[in-house]
Amino acid sequence: MTVLLIAVLIAAPVLADAPGVYAITGGTVHPVSGPEIANGVVIIRDGLVEAVGANVPIPADATTIDVKGGHVYPGLIDAQTSLGFPSAVPPRRGGAAAARQPQPPPTPLPETAASFIAMREIKLVSDDVESKRATGVTTIVAAPAFGIFNGQSVVLNLGEGDTPSRVVRDPAAQQISFNPRPAWTYPDSLMGVVAYIKQTLLDAQQYSAAHAIYDRNPSGYRRPEDNASLQALGPVLRREVPVVFVADSESMMRRAEAIAREFNVRYILSGVRQGYRFADELKANNIPVLVSVKWPIAPTNKDDREEQPLRIIRDRQLAPTTPAVLAKNGITFALVSGAGKTSDFIPGIRKAIDNGLSADDALRAVTIAPARILGVDRQLGSLEKGKIANVVVTDKPIFVKEAKVKRVFVDGRESKLPTEEERARRAEATSPVEGTWNLTVKTPQGDVSIIATLHLESGHLTGTFSGDAGSGDIRGGTVDGATVEFTISARTQAETSDWVFHGTLRDSTMDGTVSTTGGTFQFSGSKSR
Amino acid sequence: MKSLIAIVTFTVTTVAFAQNVTLIRDATILTVSHGKIEHGSILIRGTKIAAVGPNDQITAPADAQIVNASGKFVLPGIVDTHSHTAIEGSVNEISLPNTGMVRIRDVVNNEDIDAYRELAGGTTTALMLHGSANSIGGQSQIAKWKWGRPASEWIVEDAPRTIKFALGENPKSSNFRPPAGIPLQYPSTRMGVEEVIRKSFLDARDYMAKWDEYDARKKRGENPIPPRRDLLMEEMADILRGNVDVHSHCYRSDEIMMLLSLSDELGFKIRELQHVLEGYKVAREIAAHGVGGGTFIDWWGYKAEAYDAIPYNVALMERAGVLTSVNSDSDELARRLNLDAAKAMKYGGLTEEEALKLCTLNPATQLRLDKRIGSIDVGKDADLAIWNGHPFSTYSRVDTTFIEGQIYFDRQRDLRLRQELAKEKADRLKKEADEAAKEKKEKTPEDKND
After folding, report:
1. How far is Cα A410 from Cα A295, in angstroms, rounded to an integer?
2. CB of B32 within 8 A of CB of B392?
3. pLDDT of A102 strictly over 60
4. Are residues A226 and A134 located together in one domain of the fold?
């Protein structure tokens, strides 16, 4: 029986150029919009779902795909990712000419990227798309993670083809992150980031007002200057496009809320890993949230774990209860990969389930909920007549640990999945920067030991650190050849400040400098086995 | 030792908010404003001090919670006018010579354990300051250390607005340099610092004139294009309008004189000179400007501009008529400002009451909150600490700290919670270790098959 089943499920995919007519039969259908249907049928025609049910007649022109024993789902939506964007190093202020000159006040605002259109710039690599599809994700909402105004995100279907053919909604949202810039570039502190966001929105208000007056009757007025970034914020101020604030902690969420209220913008919170203690506020204000399943991880070293304050340990253990807490409180939420790796998405959802979330709520949180939050629920998020035919077939219920995605349809066409060999090859192809590093920073106050665990995916360097300078996430990480750069929020006796590492890789060692507000220091270290 | 620190981290999260009326009985009350009351009582009603006097003159209603303080001392909550505690992210926005648009109130971190440790030293109110990396730093924030409450409740909403200025070595980048590839930031001399401040105010006047013109045209029925709202210029304009108090970091007498004459020239008011280690050299001039001084009693020589410091600075400034306080600039010193105040009795011969004021009423006055805090008087906020001995003894420590009538630190409760929290930590670590071991076990047989 089992042998037979597998044979059916891994039958050659019907890769076709044009969306055809398919009848997926024999599986348990999870339409999300209604109860599951044992031995159900899903009919796909011309890229759309034509019918879903138990006793649906098979059209004569349909190719029947028997997935007996399998499970049929709407394609999953990952509603916040930076897939397709290499991380960029922000350009630093000034050159030699700027030296020893009074710096002008921060106008015009440097490097505002509100006008950045993700749809134009995204570069999806087919390996990345295949890996993503292999987790059951057929739709992503993508924007770069770099900068403060990250730009206008886009909803994309992960089918074959070019970007324009993949677009479902553009722009989806304006994404804003509380990312300080490197030291000596405004804004290089968290409080500076808040002031910068507010000033930019004030400028956008003024821009709209000035153009409204001028456009009505230009005679007698000096022509207002054109500014693409401020113009791009017009739809945000008019509440036509929502803002996605990337905010993990309770304090960041409160900061985002305060800004959103002050400027009366529609907003969505993303990250929200401390949502478990913020549910009342989210519910009272009816704020939709995207919860990142990149859960905080414990340091690998036992001593490091034991030296951490209880507050950190407690938060790390309670963060994955966030989805269950939100579900219990009736808050609309989606689960997203955020800054996490593609391969960590489903395990991250599983961890939320282990911490009290029902599998049904988990499924809604990656299908209909994100579709609603982004306003694409008439096209996506469930298996219903008339919706886009994004369909995923698995051999076991999708969140079961051993479950494998067997077939994927995007826009009604069957898409390629990586073979076992390809998966194995991609898993092995790690950059020399990946791994756990024991780093020592030479400061005038003595050596500071830091253990950094680094991951590289799609050009993004992410990870965590712990040791003498506290612990937390790696931010702003880039790798360019042998040059590595990343930032940590270092906690020394006196204060928390950004330490920016600029290192050079040499096999399993790394050395370079650390820029801090207290000076520039040397660091070196090696990768642990 | 390390594990002990870790345990204290989450000691007080909830406070008994039910109590409305509290009577502290039979203490030696150091009122600061009107002397010492032996065998005295303090009645707290809600957030305020309702009565204070000898035991026999103070009666409590039947439902009052009684705190027996026989043999103990009560001091007003200590006020620290130079704090960098509880600030999330960098204390400095270092990128520009004037960053007056950034606000500390946006980054109050109510989980900074140092605030709790300061409560354990009797400190209840602080001026949270931006760093001193630039000539004009950020907007500061007066806050109370209401540990366990949301950050928004730490902010003293009706307190004066304040801003940090800085003179000397730090804003001219003598003590820290940007990494290679980033140009050194203007200014690099004390002359340049002066120029940055003057230019900022002149720009603010232009900004105000632009808006005045806009408002006038609006009034005439025209439909002008509104000028750009600039958060930095609005702050500078508000300083000129007298709506924001300036607290300026400074060391040398020459730069102090520069700032005083610059304030005369441009018409802004300085509320307090911070550090002001050479204040004794120009104390009469500082007093004549009605400016206060917040200083260290015996920190000196840690950089070139700190070499002329003397421990008599406090007493000399105080005697010359400068409203003087001792403050911390340190999460550690902020736990024992009482002892720095005590040293002013030795160095310069201040009376006990004068010395007590250095860390209570004087800083409260510098913050223009002396109607609310800084002494034990009827009608003031019930911000108090009960000490097990005189606060000027190195052997004394705080038993209980109140802010606005609520207990935010209690030694007995702390000791009890340490055990509970140690157990929670051990349990949580064990849970993690067990899960990791289970995962490893599950993984191993699979790997073997591969």
Report:
1. 29
2. no
3. no
4. yes
Report yes or no on A231 lying in a domain: yes
Structure tokens at B250: 């400074």
- Using CA atoms, how far residue B25 sits from A164, A173, A520, B39, B50, in Å, is 77, 61, 56, 8, 14
What spatial distance separates the first Cα and last Cα of chain A, rounded to whole Å?
44
Q: For residue A93, tell me if it sits in a domain.
A: no
A189, A196, A199: best mutation site toward chain B, by most B Cβ within 10 Å?
Answer: A189
Same domain, A52 and A122: no
pLDDT reported for residue B329: 96
The answer to whether residue A99 is domain-embedded is no
Residue B257 buriedness (CB in 10 A; 0-12 / 13-18 / 19+): middle
Residue A517, chain B, CB below 8 Å: the answer is yes
Residue A409 lies in domain = 1-74+381-421
Q: Is the ipTM of this complex over 0.90?
A: yes
Name the residue range of residue B70's domain.
Answer: 1-77+374-450
Q: What is the pLDDT of residues A410-449, one digit of tens each?
A: 999 999 898 888 877 776 666 788 888 999 999 877 889 9
State the pLDDT at residue A428: 66
Nearest to A103 among B97, B109, B436 (CB): B97
A244 φ, ψ to 5°? -100, 110
* Judgement on whether residues B143 and B284 belong to the same structural domain of the protein: yes
For residue B24, which phi and psi values (nearest 5 degrees)? -90, 120
Quote the strand ranges of B55-149, DSSP E: 65-68, 73-76, 78-83, 123-128, 136-144
DSSP states of B415-442: HHHHHHHHHHHHHHHHHHHHHHHHHHHH
Given the DSSP bridges, would you call strands A48-53 and A37-45 parallel, antiparallel or unpaired? Answer: antiparallel
**In A, which residues are within 8 Å of B180 by CB distance?**
513, 520
* % of chain A with per-residue pLDDT over 90: 62
User: Is A103's Cβ below 8 Å from some Cβ in B?
Assistant: yes
Dist. CA A399–CA A414, nearest whole Å: 22
Q: Is B264 on the interface with A (CB under 8 A)?
A: no
Q: Which pLDDT value is given to residue A437?
A: 92
DSSP code, position A96 = G
Q: How far is B290 from chain A (nearest CA, A)?
A: 31
Contact B313, B282 (CB under 8 A): no
Q: What is the pLDDT of residue A499?
A: 87
pLDDT of residue A126: 87
| Mean pLDDT of the region B399-425 | 97
Chain B nearest C-alpha distance from A220 (Å): 10
d(CA B422, CA B298): 38
Does the structure show a pLDDT above 60 at A298? yes
